[in-house]
Write a structure and sequence with these properties.
The complex is a heterodimer of chains A (425) and B (198). Chain A is α+β, with helices and mostly antiparallel strands and 425 residues long. Chain A folds into 2 domains: 234 residues, outer membrane lipoprotein receptor (LolB), chain A (Clam); 134 residues, Sandwich (Immunoglobulin-like), CATH 2.60.40. Helix content of chain A is 20%, strand content 40%. In chain A, the strands form 4 sheets. Chain A has a 13-stranded mixed β-sheet. In chain A, strands 15, 16, 17, 19, 20 and 21 form a 6-stranded antiparallel β-sheet that branches. Chain A has a 3-stranded antiparallel β-sheet with strand order 18-22-23, with no helix packed on it. With 198 residues, chain B is mainly alpha-helical. Classes of the chains: A alpha+beta (425), B mainly alpha (198). At the A-B interface, helix 1, helix 2 and strand 18 of A face helix 2, helix 3, helix 4, helix 5 and helix 6 of B.
Chain lengths: 425, 198
């Protein structure tokens, strides 16, 4: 056999073992790439480009649209929103039984509040302030609320994500779906100023996370007409209307009002629990979150080990959090924190799938529960290897906390509910 | 066995430059074109080297996403787009190999399940499977005697059709060094093939 024969054999084997990507991979890749675009807006160069674009718009009046499927006006609205400190969004959905009104207050200084009312009655609420994350829901079977611990830095990280949701579907082409500009014009606003109006056809994408506004969720593939009013000076969205095609005619599905950099009323930080609500609070979780046992940094994450506890059966409870050092996550999925534990006597632990968890992709606080290989083993010290972003295909960053002293077993099986406060209002 | 993307002519640089320009100016359709053009071979390169379809899926997406985020740093006069992309892929694969070294201590039952290569080969006709297994055995033999960089250079040259210059741009070596590397890799591989008569 000649060298050429051997080389050919090698080449054929290398080619034969190179697989093609599975079905759907390309669509997922495109989605991920589109999600990278907003981060580019944080770069100085992008701001400079926007400044130039703004100047051009001002000089030319209604500028020619750039070669984007989405209007340049929408891009400017998104960028202007990113610079806001607070926003107040009111979305109204006309219904047969009355209007459904969803009101959101967002502040970079640590406030996220969204509440939905139907016929004036509170149906859902999410309130996240300096330390609390309150969920409330009311249905036919009654009303319930739960209060969780949410450190303030996590609220700040979540601001951008919630802002994106509040502005949906302006960012549709950045995530999924598409926007096609139908027309753009200027009109007097009746108060001596002008507003810029864009009419856009939004084709809802396959993934629904960016298709929800005011409680409305549109099915994939539906074509929705958007009419957006923006402030020509600052580029910010002022008002939006969404129309669905029904019987060949467009019908108003949702109207949205935006207010930027307004004073957040004190009432937005308060929640008066409606009568009849069962209110649950777990002080144990918060008490652990306020401690810090150890902290370690990787390139992308700050990993904080808050506390270690051992329950009656020898299960190890690791209170741990992750915080992204810079915005690099490319998806809205929020994988769990993964912990590997080994005792000083060789005991290994298996992570249980469920545990209390708050947060999102870039920030999360969790109590990870680990089961020992044998309940009879009682190690005195433990070494933890923590993957803060534990998708099977994560960025490969782990931190190790070595030789940590283990506390004595506590006389309870479910430590998280220790001291649980349940109040009937 | 014919597979998607195999035997294609190397992409012309001018087309890549146009693609880069479209992404830079925010053309929404350019992402799909980037994925269609460079995604399959990039995925194949990573999957073949790591032997794990699930991880390869994610790494290939990460490579493309990182490239889009940092496109302003890409300089065509310093290398082709695909050489830049494969360079990013190499760094990510090195990180994955380090990660696997730490994962070895976790029992398989406790790991989050990883997709296996079987999913990719499940649709192969029966005859192809036997040929593929032979090819996999041969590639495993090569991987046993060649270093990571030698395997990568050999793959880029033989499968992806990279020039010496492009391989140099990808792995950060001069053309002359790449030439020596490839000669050495091929010689080692031939010796192994002849010795084991595989």
């Amino acid at each position: 056999m000649t060298c050429d024969d051997l080389d050919r054999q090698m080449e054929e084997a290398l080619k034969a073992t190179r697989p093609a990507p599975p079905a759907g991979w390309q669509a997922r890749a495109v989605e991920a790439l589109r999600a990278t675009t907003p981060r580019r807006t944080l770069h100085f160069g992008r701001y400079a480009a926007v400044a130039v674009a703004c100047a051009t718009v001002a000089w030319l009046g209604l500028a020619r649209l750039p070669e984007l499927k989405a209007s340049g006006l929408l891009d400017l609205a998104l960028l202007a929103a990113q610079q806001a400190k607070t926003v107040h969004v009111t979305a109204v959905v006309p219904q047969a039984a009355g209007e459904s009104v969803t009101e959101s207050w967002l502040s970079r200084e640590g406030l996220l509040r969204t509440e939905q009312r139907e016929g004036g009655n509170l149906r859902e609420l999410r309130l996240c302030d300096d330390t609390r994350l309150i969920w409330y829901g009311a249905g036919e079977k009654g009303a319930a609320a739960r209060e969780d611990y949410m450190p303030s830095q996590y609220v700040g990280v979540l601001f951008s994500m919630d802002l994106g949701n509040a502005l949906a579907p302006l960012g549709a082409p950045l995530h999924n779906g598409s926007l096609a500009l139908l027309g753009e014009r200027e009109e007097p606003d009746g108060q001596g100023e002008t507003v810029r109006i864009a009419e856009v056809q939004w084709t809802v994408g396959e993934h629904a996370y960016n298709s929800l506004l005011g409680g409305l969720r549109y099915p994939p593939g539906e074509k929705v007409l958007l009419r957006l009013w923006t402030d020509p000076k600052k580029g910010r969205a002022i008002r939006m209307e969404q129309y669905r095609q029904e019987g060949g005619e467009p019908h108003l599905a949702c109207r949205v009002q935006f207010e930027w950099d307004v004073q957040v009323p004190a009432a937005a930080r308060q929640f008066e629990v409606p009568p009849g609500t069962e209110y649950v609070r777990d002080p144990w979780w918060e008490s652990r979150g306020r401690q810090t046992l150890a902290e370690a940094k990787t390139r992308d994450w700050v990993v904080t080990l808050h506390a270690l506890d051992v329950d009656r059966t020898g299960h190890l409870l690791v209170s741990v959090s992750r915080l992204e050092t810079r915005a690099t996550t490319t998806t809205n999925s929020a994988p769990p924190i993964w912990v590997e534990a080994t005792g000083d006597d060789g005991t290994t632990y298996r992570q249980l799938p469920l545990g209390p968890y708050v947060g999102g992709p870039g920030a999360a606080y969790s109590v990870v529960s680990l089961e020992p290989e044998s309940p009879d083993r009682t190690p005195h010290r433990v070494t933890l290897v923590i993957d803060p972003y534990a998708r099977p295909r994560s960025r490969g960053e782990t931190v190790t906390f070595r030789d940590l002293p283990l506390p004595a077993r506590q006389d309870a099986v479910d430590l998280v509910v220790t001291g649980r406060e349940t109040t009937r209002h | 066995m014919q597979r998607e993307g195999l035997g294609d002519a190397p992409p012309r640089v001018s087309e890549d430059e146009a693609l880069v320009a479209r992404i830079r100016r925010g053309d929404d359709t350019a992402y799909a074109d980037l994925c269609e053009r460079h995604g399959p071979p990039l995925y194949g390169f990573v999957a073949a080297r790591l032997g794990d379809a699930g991880t390869a899926e994610d790494i290939a997406i990460q490579v493309l996403a990182e490239a889009c985020r940092n496109l302003r740093t890409y300089q065509p006069n310093r290398g082709t787009l695909r050489a830049w992309l494969y360079g990013i892929a190499r760094r990510k694969m090195q990180g994955e190999r380090r990660r696997r070294a730490t994962l070895k201590s976790i029992p398989p039952s406790q790991r989050v399940s990883l997709e296996s290569m079987e999913e990719v080969t499940a649709d192969d006709p029966a005859g192809d499977v036997a040929a593929r297994l032979d090819a996999e055995r041969l590639v495993a033999e090569l991987a046993a005697v060649l270093s990571d960089v030698e395997m990568e250079a050999l793959t880029l040259h033989s499968v992806e059709g990279f020039s010496m210059r492009e391989i140099g741009q990808t792995i950060g070596r001069s053309e002359r060094a790449v030439d020596s590397l490839l000669r050495r890799a091929k010689q080692k591989a031939r010796e192994r093939l002849v010795r084991d008569d595989v």
